[in-house]
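TA notes. Do not distribute before section.
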Amino acid sequence: MEEGYVDINSVPTRVISMGGWIVGQPIKKKHLIIVIPGNPGLIGYYEHFMRSLYDELLGEYVIWGLGHAGHDFPNNVTMPSVNDKPELFTLDGQVNHKIDFVETYVPAGVNLHFIGHSIGAKICVELVKRYRSKHNAAAYLLFPTLERMAQTPSGRKLWPILGPLRKVVVFAASLLYRLPESWLTPVVEWAMRSKGSHLAIESSTSSGSAPSAVHVNVRTTMRLLHPQALERSLFMAHDELKVVGELNADDIRLHSDRLVLYFGTKDHWCPMEYCQNLQRQVPEARAIVCPHGFEHAFVLQSSQQMATIVSGWIKDLS
């Protein structure tokens, strides 16, 4: 695994790669997978998923994971502020951010496979529309938030935090962030483990000496507590609730043969009625209901299992 930051529209953006770095090493494989996160858009949360997927595909595909603009950045780096450049950090801004990345770093002749989680799924639909012809693009949409986010149980619950109370939340995070790392790490680790008793499933990886998934997720959450990172994540989430409205069934229908959609049975960001709405409007869509009870935030508990499932879809559409 390699990782680093690239500059996209004056925003340093974290990238994780498996099978070849994005510059200086020409892609020698026919297929490139790009993982687009949900929100928060720190690609570190997907590290174990990417490692597992790379192993499942026997190293025959290059995999890049691309964080969201402004959600993860190097220390001591000045970035455009939300107040001065809000257009960089909205949902549309994140779509343009991914387009600029593809235009800059993906060579011609490579087939693209996008994996989008949560709001990353909506971004991936836009990417398939743009790159279907040029790169034979396909997308695998995991627990997709494609419609009426503000009306979901999670959307209604978080609206006050994302709106009027956002500054208070960021201020509280800034106080936590000042704590010594030796104090803060155990607190974050306890909070992460309390998310579910099954976290122990991902306490190890199949890639030799790779750090445990729990360790990586704790480390990533520490980065999320940076006030500027959290501010941009909450700003984007607030924009999502405002702009993600009715399902765009026409786009799903037009590209249904290049999309796979995977819905959870207990997803508070995408209730089952949304899956049923999509199946009713686009019966030809390959919409799969998860039979395993995976949570929306699958990266905390089920990365290995999800990688096994997704690898089969990728082989089918390659």
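Switch to the second chain here.
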Amino acid sequence: MDQDMEVWKQIFQELIQEVKPWHKWTLRVDKDLLPNSLKLGWSQYQQWGFARFQCSLCSRSWASAQVHILFHMHKTEGKPEGKVKMRIFAQRCRNCDQSPFEFPEFTKENISRILNNLVFRILKKCYREAFKSMEEIPVIKEITLEGPHDKNNCEACLQGYCAQGGLHEAMQSPVSLIPPAISSPALEIDIPMPSPIRSGTTMDAVKGNAGADKSKALPQPWCPGPTQNAILPTHWSPRANTHYGMERRAQVSTSSEVLYSHIPQNPRYRNLNACYCFLLLIIVVVIIVETIQWTST
């Protein structure tokens, strides 16, 4: 777990330095962290992701798409620094009677995606940066899972923080966010445990699943402000070895619209023009009559 946390901390520092290069943020594990139990000035973000487990007693392996990750975050008032507390809820083997709760193993790609979502929440809640929209970057499911979630062996469910009941964030700051995109309940099934060392290349088998996610664009701020220099770049890949970096594609319209203005004539102007014509006709007639009379005399 300690070795895995170093990966989380490293990726978090890389991401936060991209948007706030002169600010100091720390990420640490808090095993006593509870959802919706916030200190004054703290904000919460929680997500459910895909990860693998291995029993330390029988070496059985399984995967779950309902792994609960909880974050509490706080920025120091008036200072360029902040703190993030994190708790990842464990699961235990259903085949062993006295099995301990095991901590999950995430791929680096999914860690990057989860921390990407966290960094956006930090910008939104702690820095009050405005975004027109904020979509959840979904985690990658390496395999297809079917059936109900194993609540009897899930630490979060046993403590009353069921994944199915956590579709919306509670006790949030006044700014409203789009809730996390929660996948459908999944049954933990026995699968072969892969190598502990993971990299971006281990996800080649699921390119079809990740292809749909690749076109998702990171949300952009809709109004300028003093923190505009910290706006996330249009093309932002959290890690150099990530094969599923986000990209933003500008949608260019190929059709052009021509607006035509049409001003209907006013009946008053039409009547006035008729009067002018009639008056001009009378003058011409009078001139002709006077000319005839003058020539006849």
